[in-house]
Design goal:
Layout: H1 2-39, H2 46-59, H3 61-82, H4 85-91, H5 96-137, E1 157-165, E2 170-178, E3 187-198, E4 204-217, E5 225-238, H6 261-297, H7 306-315, H8 318-384, H9 391-415, H10 421-425, H11 427-444, H12 452-471
Antiparallel strand pairs: 1-2, 2-3, 3-4, 4-5
């Protein structure tokens, strides 16, 4: 039995590792395509790009792992069924559950590892990824001076050249506007040609100008115009905004995506306490408003008998009555506005709490999804009896799309406040679990409703039946 279990594990581990990395690679390429516009032209070093892709791949494990479990399960049991190895195992007295036992243990261990990853590694990877992506987005593009186009990326300077030879870094017909003193185009440098280089530390752009003129307007009225000719002049431009400045991770660490389960629970308790304090505060203000509304009519019901209230209203002068009603209407209108603002505030606070709830449940949904998809993939492979990358890929994509779409829909409904966190985050599990149980039952009883030969035989019977009817 031990040799059999080792054989089944080896048969499963190959497709599992292969499909996991292939799926992860496809998702990373999709991520790269999404953010490629923010990285092109910024002169990023290769190690920065590799670091960003590494953190992005850690963030995409939540999609790659369930799909790998589903696809490898279908491939493994489909191959066993296609080569009649599954039939031989069942003929020897082993049930499908017994055959699935080693893989079931492996999937449960994988689920525990997925939970540990979601709770500890994933928040850290999200923090690193968010910080690095923020730094890349705020990095200026690399210096790219185009012909006859004003280049304004260097703070305080505008540069225009007639021709830029990028192979030799030689510039022709150079025009530089110096705006460092924030007083307009009062300092201009023009040169016939020049050489563009970077300082050894890369913190300055050095332009070596030849055969040029410098123009400068002196400060104050009636001051002479300054002009000087030069054969060679060196101009240095600071490049502080062109380097990748790494931000402090502390600015992002309180985001709900960067917290583990204990931190999320503590944060949600704090947020709910603040909501209750806000409700008590508003309730006190409402009671105060009710008292002011009663005072505006001068009707103290606890002191004035009911039979005297009508006579009291009739005794108030018309001008005084109009003032009282106007004051009451204004107070009611103001209170209605405050009530609407308070309602929006509570809805916003609740949405923010729901975002924390989503991340809290997400720590568990990945682990459970691996188990549910395994119990869909394994019996599905045993039923279709097709291995390889043909039919298993099609079936796994269909089930994975069902899982992914229901997960996204449930999460969106939570954010909109139409579903609770439990119902929304576990919607995919509630839908797929009965399917897994049904498929496991059918595979255990050797049902043939998913086999192509079964439908082919049924179609032949129908064709024979109708042909007989037509002859009669």
């Amino acid at each position: 039995m031990k040799k059999l279990y080792n054989l089944i594990l080896k048969t499963y581990l190959g497709p599992f590792v292969l499909t996991f990395f292939i799926t992860l690679f496809i998702l990373v390429m999709q991520f790269l395509w999404k953010y490629v516009d923010e990285m092109i032209g910024k002169g990023l070093e290769w190690n920065v790009i590799v670091e960003l892709l590494f953190y992005a791949s850690a963030n995409l494990v939540t999609l790659a792992l369930p799909l790998a479990v589903l696809l490898s399960s279908i491939m493994t049991f489909g191959t066993l069924g296609e080569h009649y190895e599954l039939v031989a195992l069942k003929a020897s007295g082993l049930s499908l559950q017994r055959i699935m036992f080693p893989l079931t243990v492996f999937i449960f261990v994988t689920s525990i590892g997925a939970f540990m990853f979601s709770n500890y590694a994933w928040p850290r990877a999200n923090l690193k990824f968010a910080t690095l992506l923020y730094d890349i987005r705020h990095k200026k593009p690399a210096i790219d001076i185009q012909d006859k186009i004003y280049y304004k990326e260097i703070d305080g300077y505008v540069i225009r050249v007639a021709h830029n030879n990028k192979e030799t870094n030689t510039l022709e017909d150079i025009l530089i506007y110096d705006h460092t003193d924030r007083t307009g185009n009062k300092k201009v440098i023009r040169a016939d040609k020049g050489q563009m280089d970077l300082s050894p530390l890369g913190d300055y752009l050095i332009l070596t100008l030849e055969e040029g003129v410098s123009y400068q307007e002196m400060k104050g009225k009636n001051q002479p115009h300054f002009q000087s000719h030069f054969k060679k002049e060196i101009v240095r431009f600071p490049l502080a905004g062109f380097e990748l400045n790494r931000s402090d991770e502390e600015r992002f660490k309180d985001n709900f995506k960067m917290l583990n389960i204990s931190q999320l629970s503590a944060e949600m308790d704090t947020l709910r306490m603040k909501v209750k304090e806000r409700e008590r505060s508003y309730l006190d203000k409402t009671q105060t408003f009710s008292q002011l509304l009663a005072d505006s009519f001068k009707l103290e019901k606890q002191y004035i008998p009911d039979e005297q209230q009508a006579s009291l209203l009739s005794s108030i002068e018309p001008k005084r009555m109009a003032f009282v009603f106007e004051q009451a209407i204004n107070n009611t209108r103001n209170h209605k506005t405050k009530l609407s603002t308070y309602k929006d505030e509570l809805a916003s606070r609740q949405k923010y709490i729901n975002r924390h709830d989503i991340e809290w449940h997400r720590k568990f949904t990945l682990s459970v999804a691996c188990i549910v998809l395994f119990f869909i993939g394994a019996p599905m492979g045993a039923l279709i009896r097709k291995g390889g990358l043909g039919m298993p890929v099609i079936v796994s994509i269909l089930f994975f799309l069902l899982f992914h779409i229901t997960s996204i829909t449930g999460e969106k409904l939570i954010k909109q406040g139409e579903l609770g966190p439990i119902a929304g985050m576990w919607l995919a599990t509630f839908i797929l679990s009965p399917i897994g149980i049904f498929l496991t039952y059918k595979a255990s009883t050797d049902a043939s409703f998913l086999q192509f030969d079964f439908y082919r035989d049924v179609l032949k019977r129908f064709m024979t039946f109708f042909q007989g009817k037509s002859k009669k």
